[in-house]
Amino acid sequence: MNVTLNSVLLPDDLVWRDEFEWAPVEQVVTPTLSGALLVEETAKPEGQPLTLSGHCSRAKVQELKVLEAQVAQLMTLTLLDGLARTVVWRRPGVVATPLYELADPDGDHPYALTLNLTEIERGE
User: Which of 123, 101, 122 is nearest to 110 (CA)?
Assistant: First the structure.
């Protein structure tokens, strides 16, 4: 199974850093004048942050920056689990830092990559 964002092939060793830091239920706890607590909960069916981290080439970063430059685009992310997720960028969407600095890096130069996305809908 390939890891893809729209038609861009991504490294298959990307790590989903915040996979379990999101709850599908929003909770607001308000103390009343009597000291009792009023607890309100609402389901959040969408909006999970999806932060992917790993390494890739400079050429891949440039390809992703072109995709990031598109305004308000819904994209399809497919991870190794095979589920197609509808996502949008959480700006800045592509953060990349060279693993070591060169004045004139070529397309194969290695970069640390972070993709900041928000899941809108999870497919099957």
Answer: 101
| Contact by Cβ (8 Å): 41, 60 | no
CA atoms within 13 A on the CB side of 89: 17
Which residue type occupies 63?
Answer: E
Q: Residue 75: name the closest of 2, 1, 8, 17 by CA.
A: 8
DSSP string, the chain: --EEETTEEEPTT-EETTTTS--SEEEEEEE-TTSPEEEEEEE--S-EEEEEEEEEEHHHHHHHHHHHTSTT--EEEE-TT--EEEEEEEEEEEEEEESS--SS--TT-EEEEEEEEEEEEE--
Q: What pLDDT, in 10s, does the model give residues 42-72?
A: 998 889 999 999 999 999 999 999 999 999 9
Cα torsion 51, 88, 1, 65: sign = negative
CA distance 114 to 53: 4
Q: What is the value of pTM for the model shown? A: 0.88
